Amino acid sequence: MTQTIVITGSTRGIGFGLAAEFLKRNCNVAVNGRSQSAVDQTVEDLAGRCPAGRVWGQPGDMTQYDHVQQLWDSVRSHFGSIDIWINNAGVAHPDLEFWTLPKADIDKTVGINLIGLMYGCRVAINGMLAQGGGFVYNMYGFGSTGMLRNGMSIYGSTKRAVNYFTAALVKELAGQPVKIGSLSPGMVITDLVLDQYRDRPEDFEKAKRIFNLLGDRVENVAAHLAEQILANDRSGAALRHMSTARMMTRMITGRIRKRDLFAVENRKPE
């Protein structure tokens, strides 16, 4: 049976990569972004990779509850049901000390990464309870496990909160037909990450060393996560791209086998 998957924030980055991978696996996919033009371009790009009618797009701001509900309603109307909803939409902020971070960046990061994700969960859970079941996945990121780093106070706080919120939903939905899971992509080379180093070339050169050691390209991460998502049938599943064993292997072999993730362009243009 063909599964229908909604991915928020999927006009670029990991979201776009996941959409492409699910289409390769014969799923129906609904993409989402904040502008109609970005969504239209994404649908056009993806439509050339799959049979006709498999991809659908709906613009909307995840911080606006009515937009989130419209996303659910439009996809439900087009495909008939929604099997998997992935809360992927997110933003990062410049690596600055909290007290120097502009208020606009604080509001935007908390609004999209946390409030928008909660709206997505509420709409998807209610819709799935009404239709008889489904899966909701929340995207983790730096800070989800409590790890600290200077300049990541707000972003890390939102992801730590998403960790707690996801665990709370697993508990609250125990015995219900809606299942909750989390996705941990690890370090991925995306615009979201690179935007943090805009106008800071020296810091970017330092960061590149870590990314080349422990990071990965979108297409590799998306393929691995898509396979795990489609194979999973358990609520509370924490699906990860970078396992502890893989991380240790990278650390050991990194000095011998040099990687350059920035040598080949792997980001989708805006």
Describe the overall structure.
With 270 residues, the protein is of the alpha/beta class. It has one domain (4-253): 3-Layer(aba) Sandwich (Rossmann fold). The chain is 48% helix and 11% strand. It has a 7-stranded parallel sheet, with helices on both faces. The model is unreliable at 264-270 (pLDDT under 50).
Summary, kept brief:
The protein is an alpha/beta fold and 270 residues long. The protein has helices spanning 13-24, 36-47, 65-79, 103-131, 153-172, 191-194, 201-214, 218-231, 244-253, and strands at 4-7, 28-31, 55-57, 84-87, 134-139, 178-184, 238-240. The chain has a seven-stranded parallel sheet with strand order 3-2-1-4-5-6-7, with helices on both faces.
Overall shape: globular
Give the strand content: 5-15%
Identify the strand order in the major beta sheet: 3-2-1-4-5-6-7
CATH domain class name: Alpha Beta
Decide which structural class fits the backbone. alpha/beta
Total DSSP helices: 9
- What is the CATH homologous superfamily assignment? NAD(P)-binding Rossmann-like Domain
- Count the strands? 7
- Low-pLDDT residue spans: 264-270
When the domains are counted, the total is 1
So, CATH architecture? 3-Layer(aba) Sandwich
User: What is the N-to-C succession of helices and strands?
Assistant: EHEHEHEHEHEHHHEH
Distance between the termini: 33 Å
CATH fold call: Rossmann fold
Helix content: 40-55%
Rg, rounded, reads 18 Å
Mean pLDDT: 88
Q: Strand count, sense and closure of the main sheet? A: 7 strands, parallel
